[in-house]
Amino acid sequence: MTVDTFLAFASILVSYSFFGMASKGVKLNIPLFYLNRHLRLLVPLGFAVGAYITVTKHLGGGPLYRDLVHAYNMSCKTFWWSTVFYIQAFINPRLMCVVQTWFLGVDMFWYYFAPFLLLAISKNPLSGYLLLFTIYSCCTAFNFYIAWDHHFNGQMPVS
């Protein structure tokens, strides 16, 4: 539920920014739109990946800490590129470098489609909203199929 809330806020902010620029007559530069987002996120993400590789082994202790840190270090050394390109949730979900950044991959996936959906809505609102509804319906049906096929019951186990 909280991830959905953050995705909703992100999409509202992107839409608000887009339509604010469109109302002023500013044309959307799609490569600059993507580059701006990548550069804003790359610096803190780079620090997180660097910290996982270098610093985390010195920050804790315990019987399982070294094994856990070693597993994260190996996945970061091997799959750092999938984290930097925000595809870690799709390419190697079991060997993510910085596990907490799976959300960035999902958010960037929708960010790549945002300009096209927003341009479709601004050019022809009826067909743009129809396209948005179709995408939403397909995603809902796909999620339902996955839950049905894997027999997910919607409950979180409590230990």
UniProtKB/TrEMBL annotation:
<feature type="transmembrane region" description="Helical">
    <location>
        <begin position="6"/>
        <end position="26"/>
    </location>
</feature>
<feature type="transmembrane region" description="Helical">
    <location>
        <begin position="38"/>
        <end position="55"/>
    </location>
</feature>
<keyword id="KW-1133">Transmembrane helix</keyword>
<protein>
    <recommendedName>
        <fullName>Acyltransferase 3 domain-containing protein</fullName>
    </recommendedName>
</protein>
<keyword id="KW-0812">Transmembrane</keyword>
<feature type="transmembrane region" description="Helical">
    <location>
        <begin position="102"/>
        <end position="121"/>
    </location>
</feature>
<dbReference type="InterPro" id="IPR052728">
    <property type="entry name" value="O2_lipid_transport_reg"/>
</dbReference>
<feature type="transmembrane region" description="Helical">
    <location>
        <begin position="128"/>
        <end position="148"/>
    </location>
</feature>
<keyword id="KW-0472">Membrane</keyword>
